[in-house]
Amino acid sequence: MMRVLLRPLHWVVSRIPPAALLLAALAIGLCAELWVVALPARAADEPRPLVVMLGSQPATLDPLRATDADGVRISHQLIFDTFVRLGDDLTIQPNLAAFKRLSPTRYRFSLPKGRHFHNGAPLTAADAVYTLQRFMAPEVGSPYGGSLRDEIASVRQTGKLSFEVTLKAPYAAFLSHMTLPVLSRQQNGVPTPWGDLNGTGPFRFVRRDVGEIVLDRNPDYPHPAGVARVVFKIVQDEATRLLKFEKGDIQLAINVLPLDKIAEFGRPPLSDRYRVVESPGLSYQYLGFNLRDPILKHPRVRQAIAHAIHVNVLIARRQMSHSVPATGLMPPGSPYSDPSLKPYAYDPAEAKRLLDAAGYPMQNGRRFRLTYKTSTDRSAVIQARVIQNDLRQVGIDVEVRSYEWATFYSDIRKGNFQLYSLRWIGVSDPDFLYALLDSKSVPPQGRNRGGYANPKVDALLERARVTADPKRRAALYREVHRIAHAALPYLSLWHNNNVAVVSRALSGFRLAPAGGFEHLADVRWAVK
Amino acid sequence: MTYLVQRVLWTVPILLGVLTLVFFLLHLIPGDPVDMMLGEQALPADRAQMHAALGLDQPLGAQYLGYLERTVRGDLGQSFRQHRPVAALIAERMPATAELMLGAMVVALGVALPLGLLAALHHGRWVDQVASVFAVLGVATPNFWLGPLLILAFAIKLDWLPVNEMGGLNHLVLPSITLGTAMAALLSRMMRTALVEVLGEDYIRTARAKGLREHSVILVHALRNALIPVVTVIGLQVGALLSGAIITESIFDWPGLGTLLLGGIYGRDYPLVQGCILVIALTYVFVNLATDLAYGWIDPRIRRP
Q1: Out of B93, B152, B219, whose CB is closest to A10?
Q2: pTM of the complete model
Q3: For testing contact with chain A, the best of B161, B253, B257, B266 (most A CBs within 10 A)
Q4: How far apart are CA A57 and CA A70, in angstroms?
C-alpha cells in the first residue's frame, strides 16, 4: 500500500536534482515568511491605545481580593474610585468621599451628587455601606477584611449621600485604611472572570486576554481621561522588556524596567522617543536581623554589620543611584521621618572594634559565620553577594542561600533565618511600624519577623496609634525612629525612587508617591 | 489490538503515579498558599478561615483522596488565586502551547530531515562537518539566550517580526525557532547516524545491484528504515518541548500552559499546578503511545510478541 502511494512521488522526485529540491523548499519557506510578515497587526477602527507595560500578570482584578501591586492599581485606582486617596504630600485626601472626624471614634463621609457607576446606576451612600460590609464579611475572605473588622464597630447610612463609621477605639491610621474601592450594590455590570467590575472610576473594563488587559475611557467621569483606551501588556522576561521599548511597542512603564537598563534611555535612539521621569518613592529596602539568634542578639554585632556594609556603593552600583540612603521606614519627605538621623557611616575599622568588644575576636581570619537568605531575584542575589563581600572584610563569613520566593517567604515568616533583605512597598502611614516593631506583632499576628521587643517602643507605638494630632503623632514616631536607628532591629538600606519611562508622544504624565496609576487619567497624546 | 489495549492500560498507573507524586511534593515543599494570597496583614482568624475554605485544614490523606476522587470525576478544582475553574484556565491556555509546540516541531523536522539526509549522503565531507557544528551549537544554545538574540536580530535590527506576544502567524516564527532549534539539532544527528548505518546494509547494496536509481534507494528503502529511531526520539522529545515551552513562553510572553504553571508554582496554587501537570503528563503519555503505535506501523516486527 505504502509503496503504491509513494510511487508517483518517487517518479517525480527521482527526476528532479536534489539541489533544485532544496532551492524549491527554501523558496516556499521564504514566500511563507513574506506572507506572514505582511499580515495586518491591528484593526484600523480601534482607538489608538496607550500601551502600559506590567511586569507580571495580576492574579485578579476583583476589588475585594486584589493584593498584588498591579492588580490593586488597575482595579482600585482606574476601574473603581477609592473613598480617600494618598495625596502627593503623603497625607490622606478626599477622593470619591469627603470626610470629617466627628470624634476620636466617629467619622462622617459624604459622597458627591450625580456620580454613576459604569452601568449607569447612581452612586449612593447605600453603595458605600454595602462596600464596607462586603469587605468586612468573613465569608467573602477579603484580605482587607480582618483589619477593618478589628477597627470598625458599625457603619450607618445617615442620608442619601452620607454615612458614618464608628470605630471600636480611637485609631489614628483609620483613614489610611479607607483607600478602598467603592462597589456597586447592583451586580449587573460587565461580567468578567473576576465578577462584576462595575466601578465609578475613570476607565471601564473592556476585556482581559492572557497577557493583556484593556480599559476604555469612562466618558461620564467628571474629568474624562485624556486617552480613549489603555492596554496593559504583561512582559515577564526582563531582557524582553527593554527590547519592547526598542521596538516602540510600549509608551509607559512605571518601576518595571531593571535599574541597570534605565541609562539606555539617556542615549539615542531610545532618548529620541522616551524620557525618564523620577521622583521619591515609598519603598524601603532593609536588612533584617533575627534577634533571637545568639550572635545577632548583641546590638554591637548589628552595629558592626551596619558599619561594615558600604551602602553608598550598593546604591551607586546596584541601584544606579535611583535610590536614597534610608535611616528608617518613613522616607525623607514624610512628616514622620526624623531628618536629624544620619545613615551608619561605612567604617570597617569601627566594625572590627565593635566585634572585638562584643566578644568575637578574629581567629584564623574569621570571627563567626552567618547565613543570608534571599529570593532568586537576580538583583537580590547580587546585592547579597556584595554584602557578603563587605562583611568578609571584617571577618564575618556569610553564606548566601537563594530560594524560590514562596519558600523564602515561608522561612522569613517562621523566623527561620539569620539575615535577609527585603523591601516594603507603598508604606505611607507610620502605623505600619506597629506591625514591624511592637512585641505583640510577631508572625502570624504581625510582621515583627526578627522578634524585636522593647517596652518603651511598645508604649510609644500604642500612644501614637490613638494620637490624632499630626504634630504630636509625628513626634512619637520620630522617637520610635531614633530608638530603632540605634537598636537596629533592621538595618535601613535605602528608599527606592519611582522611575518611569514615558513616550515623548505623551503629555501630562506625573508620578504618584507610591508609583501607582492615580494620575494615568491625566495623560494625553501630545502628538496626534 | 491487544498491543494497543496493553499500551492504553499502562497509562492508568503512570497517571496515578504522576498525580500522587505531584500532590505530595506540592504539599511538602515550604510555602503556604494562604500566606501567598492574604499576605501578612491578615489576622490569624482570617487565615484559619481561608485554610478551611480551601480545604487545607483537612488531614493530608483526606485531601489526597478528595483530590483523586474529584480528578476521576473530571473536576480539576478551582484556582486558589484566580478564583476560576482550573479546567477553564487550562482550556484557555492549552491551544497556545499546542500551537507553539507544533511550530517548534515544524521547525525541527523542517531543518533536521534535510540536514540529516544531506550529512549522511555527504558522510565525512564538509557538508557533514557543517551539519555537525550546527548540531553542537543547537543543542548547546539555551532557550533563554537564543530567544532574546533572535528578537534582537529579527524584531529590532531587521524589523521583520514582532518582539513577543501571541498574534498572527508572524508572532509564531521566533518562539518556534527558539523552541525547535535544540530538537532540530538532535534529530538531524539522529537522522544522519541512522541513515549512514542503513546505507551500509546488505539490502541497500542489493537494491543498488538490482539497478534501482539512487533516489529510489534512498527515499523508498533507506529513509523508511532510518526513520524508526528518529520517530522514537520525536516522541521522547515532546517532554523536552513541553519543559522548553515554559522558558520560551516566558521570554515571548506566550500565553500558554507554561506561564500558567509557573504562576501557579510561585503562588502555591495547588489545584492549578496539579491540573497543569496532569494535562502535561497526559500529553506526554499519549504522544508516547502514538509514537509506539507509529513505531509499530513503521516496523511491524515491534507488534509481534
Answers
A1: B219
A2: 0.82
A3: B253
A4: 8
